Amino acid sequence: HPLQFTGLLYDDGQFSPGAELVRSSISANRSLTLSAEYLTDHHAWRGRERITDANGELIRLRPFSDPWTFESGIGSVSLEQSLGERSSLRLQGRVRGFDFQRPGVFKNFTPMPDGTLVQGATDDSESKRWAEEYELSPVVDRRFGDDWRAEATLLARSYAFNDNSRARNGETGDLTFSRLTRVDREFLGRLVVTKALGAQDGLEFGVESARNSRDQDLRISVDEGAGRTPLDLPGANAKVSESRNEAYASYVAQATP
Predict the structure, then answer these.
(1) How far is CA 9 from its chain centroid?
(2) What is the 3 state secondary structure string of 50-112?
(3) Prediction pTM value
(4) H-type helices in the chain, by residue range?
(5) Angle at the Cα of 166 (from 164 to 170), degrees rounded to 5?
(6) Alpha-carbon distance values, 257 to 195, 200, 253, 254 (Å)
(7) How many CB atoms lie within 10 A of CB 68?
(8) Strand partners for 162
(9) Is the distance from CB of 244 to CB of 209 less than 8 angstroms?
C-alpha cells in the first residue's frame, strides 16, 4: 500500500510523527515484500510528590517534570523464490532499532510553620537507551522423488542494548553515572528430512546445532567533586555461552482410519 503518515501533538508542544511503507512484487516464480516503519511516542510526565510523616503532616513537596521520548524503526524483507520444479527458497530478514530519552527535573519545597513553602535544591537526571537488532533466516526446501523431502534452515541474530544514565543530587552536587552494554548473539542451523510411507504416515529425521552467547558490561561511577570514582560491582561484567547439538528420528501415523 502507499506510504502512510501519522502524528500526535501533545499538550507540552511535542509532536511525534510516524510513517509506514510496504511494497510487494508477485510473479509466477517469486514473491517479494519489503516493509519499513518509523514510530515515535512521547509522554509529558509531570506531577508532584508529597512526603509526609506518620501523622500525615507534610515534610516535603517535590514537583517534577519527567518526560520521555521514544523512537523506533523497523525494516524487513520477505522473499519466496522458486529454484525449479522441486526446490524453493524462503528468506526472512529484519533490522530493528529504538532510541529512548528521559530527562527529569525534581524540585524540593519545605513547608514553614507559617504555611509557606521554601524552595530548596533541585535534583535532575537523564537516561538514554538505545538498541539495534539484526536477523536473517534463509530456508531451502527440496523434494527428491515423490516420497523424500529435505528442508535446511539457517538463523543468525544479533541484539545490542545500551543504557547510559546520570543523576545529580541537588543538595550535595554529587553525580552518579551508570552505563550498561549487553550484546546477545544467536546462530542456528537445522536440517529436516522426511520420508512419506503412505497417505497418512511417514518418517522424519532431523539435526540441529546452535551457538548462543551474551556479553554484559555494567559500569557505575560517582563524582563527589574530585572526579569520577568507579564502583566495584562483582559479577557486573560477564559472558555466557551455550553450544547445543541435537538429532532425532520420529515416526508419525494416523491412529484410526
Answers:
(1) 26
(2) EEECCCCCEEEEEEEECCEEEEEEEEEEEEEEECCCCEEEEEEEEEEEEEEEEEEEEEEEEEC
(3) 0.81
(4) none
(5) 170
(6) 20, 9, 10, 7
(7) 16
(8) 130, 181
(9) yes
CA distance 101 to 144: 55
What does the alpha-carbon distance between residue 180 and residue 166 come to, in Å, rounded to a whole number? 12
Residue 166: name the closest of 158, 152, 177, 174 by CA: 177
Coil/strand/helix, residue 201: coil
Q: How far apart are CA 160 and CA 57, in angstroms?
A: 47
- CA pair distance 211, 245, nearest whole angstrom: 9
E strand or H helix at 134: strand 117-144
pLDDT digits (tens, 9 = 90+) for 180-239: 999 999 999 999 999 988 777 889 999 999 999 999 999 999 998 888 899 888 877 889
Return the number of other C-beta atoms located less than 10 Å from residue 228's C-beta.
11
Of residues 69, 52, 66, 78, the one with CA closest to residue 123: 66
Burial (Cβ within 10 Å: 0-12, 13-18, ≥19) of residue 108? buried
* Average pLDDT, integer, range 101-116: 91
Number of H helices, E strands in the chain: 0, 13
The answer to whether 69 touches 39, Cβ cutoff 8 Å, is: no
* Residue 50: alpha-carbon gap to chain centroid: 35
Residue 237's SS3 state is coil
